[in-house]
Write a structure and sequence with these properties.
It contains 6 helices and no strands. It is mainly α and about 170 residues long.
Length: about 170
């Protein structure tokens, strides 16, 4: 159970750290080969791009968990009593939107695999790149549901929020 809790808390961070490290390493290799060895590698730029795509989509759940996504809060500033209601509306709409997008993203991945599309430089199946969207949306739905459960605990049941809600408020 401790492993599951630890993964629940850190899975996005691990993925983001891995792919950001990939971006940094690949760009360093690319710059070194291009400007020092004067012989650029063709695949490092493509690998960097795909690592960045994975980094961005794995960050969806992280942003929800920590409450760091961009949002317009002008009404909340002028009317602080509506913050709980707006928080609920935002979370429900966002989670529903992510859930709605999962099916089309799976269809895109399936079509890409069926068509045997490969990247030009690395010859990587493009389904490996597009699946990042599906996984990012799944993380978004999972974290959105967790945020909704925490909202219910906090505002309807008046009990202590779980760790997801505490981390979102502390940032």
């Amino acid at each position: 159970m401790k492993v599951i809790r630890w993964l629940d808390k850190h899975v996005e961070e691990i993925l983001m750290a891995f792919f950001l490290t990939g971006v940094i390493v690949m760009m360093a290799i690319h710059v070194f080969c291009r400007y020092v060895l004067r012989s650029p590698l063709t695949w490092t730029e493509e690998c960097t791009r795909y690592c960045f795509i994975w980094f961005v989509y794995s960050g969806i759940g992280y942003g929800i968990r920590h409450g760091t996504h961009i949002r317009i809060n002008i009404l909340e500033i002028f009317f602080p009593k509506i913050i709980p209601a707006f928080s609920l509306i935002q979370t429900v709409v966002m989670t529903a939107f992510f859930a709605y997008l999962i099916v089309p993203s799976i269809e895109v991945v399936t079509q890409t695999i069926q068509r045997s599309q490969f990247s030009p430089a690395m010859h990587l199946p493009m389904g490996c790149v597009y699946i990042s969207v599906t996984l990012g949306l799944a993380f978004g739905v999972i974290r959105g549901v967790q945020a909704l459960v925490d909202w219910v605990r906090t505002y309807l049941l008046k009990s202590a929020p779980s760790q997801v809600e505490k981390e979102g408020e502390s940032k």
